[in-house]
Structure formats: C-alpha cells, structure tokens
Write a structure and sequence with these properties.
Strand content: under 5%
Shape: globular
Structural class: mainly alpha
Order of helices and strands: HHHHHHHHHHHHHHHHH
Number of strands: 0
Helix content: over 70%
Number of helices: 17
Distance between the termini: 52 Å
Length: 399
C-alpha cells in the first residue's frame, strides 16, 4: 500500500472530495468505486494495487470504511491537512442536508406525523433488509459464521441495550478467534505512510481513553452534565464498534438515544430514512441526531459535536493501525477474530431490522406491500437509493 510522500495541495484534495461528497450516492461500496475511478484511473494519486491494499485495511478496521479510505488518500496526497480536507469535503454536503432536515422536523412538529415521514420509515425497512441480505451473503458464507450471526441476533434481542450489542461483538470475536479457520492473505508489499509506530501507539491509546473515561466521567458528574457525557460516550462507542458497513451504526445509535428519551423512535427512523437520500457517508446521520436531541446538547452545536464524535474513533484507529498493518493482517488469529465479529454484526443488524425498524414502520398490509416493493426495487431493479427514498415519501403520503 505504498503511497508517495505528499506532493499535492490541501485545496486540491478538498475540491476533489467535495465533488464526491456532492455526487457519491449508494453507500460505502459504491463510494469505494467512485474513489477508484477518481483517484486511481483519473487523477492517478495511487496505483490499483496500492488502492486495493488500502481498501482491505479499512474494511478490516471498525468505522466507516469509505471515509477512512478518503482520510488515508488525503494524508498521502497532502499530509495531515490533506487528511482533514478529504474528510471535510466528503462529509460536509450530507451533514448540512441532514442538519437542515432536522431543523425542519424540530420546527414543524406535524411533519414528524406526516405521510412523507411514514414513507421514510418504511423505506428504512427495505434498506436495512437489503443490507442484511448483502452482508449475510458476503460475511456469513459458511455455517459456523451463520451460527455466530444467529447467536448475536438472539443476544441482542434478549439484551437490547448498548451493552448487549458490545457483548455480542466481543462474544463473536472470541468465538471466531477460537473456532474459525481463515487463510491469511499472502504476498504483497510493505506499507508506507507518514505515520511512525510511536504516533500509531499514541493514537491507539487515545482511541481507548474515551471508551473508559467518558462513562466514568458521566457517573461522577451531575444530571445535566451526565446526560451530555452519556450521549457523547454512546456516539463515540458507536463509531468505535461499527464493523461491516455504515448500516450497522443504526442499532448502536438507536440504543444510545431512543431508550434514554433524547430522540423519539419516530424521529430516529425518519432521519435514518432521509440519510439514504443524500450522498456521502451514512455516519452524517449523527449530525441529524445532535440537532434534534432533547437535552443540554442540541441544535447546531449538538449536530457538530456528534458528527465530530462519531468520526473521531475512525481517525484514531486508522492512524493507530497504519504502521502495524503489514504484520497484523497476515496473522490467522486476527483474521479469524475479525471474521467472527463481521458475522456478529450481521446478527446485530438483523435484530435491529425487526426492532425498532420493522415494529415502528409496518402497521398494516399496505405498509408491508410498500416495503416489499421498495426492497424489490433496490435488490432486483437496482434502482438508485435516492430515487427509492423519493418514491417512498410520495407513496407514504398516498397511503
């Protein structure tokens, strides 16, 4: 994954990623395709081999893979400011769109009860179902991993809290470590990034600090501060534990903001449906939640705070692993553990497909019929997600 020393400008990186942030619809897999066309074929920032190796690294890590690939490309092209420019350019358009949508929901309360919003809830059923099917096919190709997915689904149904999801990820990782046989990749070349091992170790330590420190801080402070710290801790944990694709952030964030009453389940699903209609990373859904959250942290400040919080662990784990990737990804035990975790997140997302997604959106035969139609458009018709979301909103008004 050799990338040459920085030889581009920060402005060049920002403009390139802003263009993608405005046009890259279709989710993380589609984003990686757009990136390859733009940075391998057209701009030639990296060669195909280096890009493929970079994608393998970011799919191995927790966090939003496409955003992490973008960060690494920006880092290689224009240094640390290039990394920031790549993230801001790719993230800004969808974050602004979802923030404005959140203010609309907050300003016009009747909007949350409208047919349009009900259509967004129904399309969320189709989109999550599509994600579960696609992830199950690629991440659970054999019966041992299918069993791990079922175990994770059962555990998160019984223990629906955030800790139940963390326990499911830990359990499937350990079982994968002990029981799965995964052949590590061979060949390849040494990775080269402007990140030292000392800096990588510091980033990994900093990655772990909020996971431990924020819960302790929240327990030690007053009620108002505790609510804010609990929200930040839950969002940071969601960003730190998302394996297997952006849709897995749905149950993690839902367990953070809905049971506590900070965001209603109806508003949560409406925002998730709206997030499918905008380009860029699905993690910008956190900006929407930050705006509408009930509590000390809300509005523009809340949106910016949660947006930064959910991406911060993705940045830290990327920087932390880059210097060690060559040795880590060739270990059979690491590959087995990650295969177990990936199977587990399929189960977690499958559990979320039933509750809260299905239970909050499907109330009658017409709802189910619409969800089935939208699922068919996505999976068989290969219709663009933005178009499917628009159709869902119009159909929601009709029914």
């Amino acid at each position: 994954m050799k990338i040459s020393s920085p030889d581009g400008s920060v402005a060049e990186v920002f403009v390139a990623f802003l263009k993608l942030g405005l046009t890259a619809f279709g989710g993380p897999i589609a984003h990686l395709g757009y990136f390859r066309t733009e940075f391998v074929e057209r701009r030639r920032w990296v060669d195909d081999r280096s890009y493929s190796d970079l994608v393998a690294l970011c799919q191995f890590l927790p966090g939003p893979a496409s955003s992490q690939v973008g960060m690494a490309l920006g880092l290689g092209r224009a240094g640390w400011l290039g990394l920031l420019a790549a993230w801001v350019g790719f993230t800004l358009p969808s974050a602004i769109a979802l923030t404005l949508f959140a203010f609309s929901i907050a300003e016009y309360q009747e909007l949350s009860q409208s047919g349009w919003i009900h259509g967004l809830k129904i399309v969320a059923v189709a989109i999550v179902a599509q994600a579960v099917c696609g992830m199950a096919k690629s991440l659970c190709p054999d019966w041992p991993r299918a069993v791990l997915a079922i175990l994770a689904a059962l555990l998160t149904m019984v223990f629906s809290s955030a800790m139940g999801q963390v326990a499911a990820i830990a359990m499937t990782g350990l079982l994968g470590w002990w029981g799965l046989k995964i052949t590590p990749p061979g060949g390849g070349q040494a990775h080269c990034y402007p990140v030292s091992r000392k800096l990588g170790m510091a980033a990994l330590m900093l990655f772990a600090v909020p996971l431990v420190g924020l819960p302790l801080w929240g327990a030690a402070t007053g009620t108002g501060s505790s609510t804010t710290i609990t929200l930040l801790e839950g969002v940071y944990r969601s960003g730190a534990l998302v394996f297997g694709g952006g849709h897995v952030v749905l149950p993690l964030l839902q367990a953070t903001v809905v049971p506590s009453g900070m965001v209603s389940n109806a508003d949560f699903l409406a925002g998730y449906g709206a997030a499918q209609a905008v380009p860029g990373p699905l993690f910008t859904f956190s900006a929407y939640l930050g705006v509408i959250a009930q509590g000390p942290l809300h509005g523009w400040v809340g949106g910016l705070a949660l947006l930064s919080t959910i991406f911060f662990p993705a940045f830290l784990i990327l920087i932390g692993v880059l210097p060690f990737w060559e040795g880590l990804h060739r270990r059979e035990s690491i590959q087995a553990a990650m295969a177990g975790v990936n199977a587990g997140v399929v189960g977690i997302l499958g559990s979320a497909l039933y509750d809260p997604v299905w239970t909050s959106a499907i109330h009658c035969k017409a709802d189910f019929a619409l969800a089935l139609l939208l699922f068919g458009l996505l999976t068989i018709g290969r219709a663009p997600p933005a178009l499917v979301v628009l159709l869902a909103g119009v159909a929601g008004i009709t029914i």
